[in-house]
Amino acid sequence: MNTKEIISNLEQYLKIMIKSTDRLNHVYNVVYFSQRLARIHKVSQERVRIAALGHDLFREVEPSKLITIAKIYSIPITEFEMSAPILLHGMISAEFLKRKYKIDEEIYEAVYYHTSGYEYMGQIGKILVISDSAGDDREYKGVKKLREESLRSLDLGYKIAIENKIHYAIEKERYILEQTYKTWNRIVLNKNLNN
């Protein structure tokens, strides 16, 4: 299947998998903002579109089914994911895309880690993490800065998106995922090494 066929196929899957109008709107807001970032930063728009369309494919699946699918896909499940199975949706979406469409490693890691971030994230992943937090459906303190800065620099936009995830987790007394704090530490380490 070529990228255009994958995109068309994913758009059909979304209609089946996503029942909520708000969630579907979110996915397309992520698609639109990610396409804008891809154009500006000269990243493959088709590959970015595949990642954006696929990132929340399993977001509305029941928690018990997410655990079952993760086990079938041999995705390791931590105690955090057992207590909040929704955290598995990106990993399952990535594995589904890999098995069905033979997506490349960069798209796979973008979808797999879009919730947490990843310390060695590629350009497509940075775009997806930013767009998931900065689409037009998102309104929170700091989102305007995230949008503006990410148009100038993917690295800065990614840093702000990860920082926002940490602040949000602390404010809401939620988990700070292992990959999120590892990503933050890598960003700070790289900054210190470059100074």
Query: Class, according to the CATH hierarchy?
Result: Mainly Alpha
CATH architecture: Orthogonal Bundle
Note the beta-strand portion: under 5%
Distance from first to last alpha carbon: 45 Å
Q: Give the total of beta strands.
A: 0
Q: Provide the succession of SSEs.
A: HHHHHHHHHHH
Q: Which class of secondary structure composition applies to the elements? A: mainly alpha
Q: Biggest β-sheet: count, sense, barrel?
A: none
- Can you tell me the residue ranges where pLDDT is under 50 for at least 5 consecutive residues? none
Give the CA-based shape.
Answer: globular
Q: If helices are DSSP runs of H or I spanning 4 or more residues, what is the number of helices?
A: 11
Provide the CATH superfamily: Hypothetical protein af1432
Radius of gyration: 16 Å
Helix-residue proportion? over 70%
Defining traits:
Hypothetical protein af1432, mainly alpha, 71% helix, 11 helices, 195 residues, globular
Brief summary:
This protein is an all-alpha fold and 195 residues long. The protein is 71% helix and 0% strand.
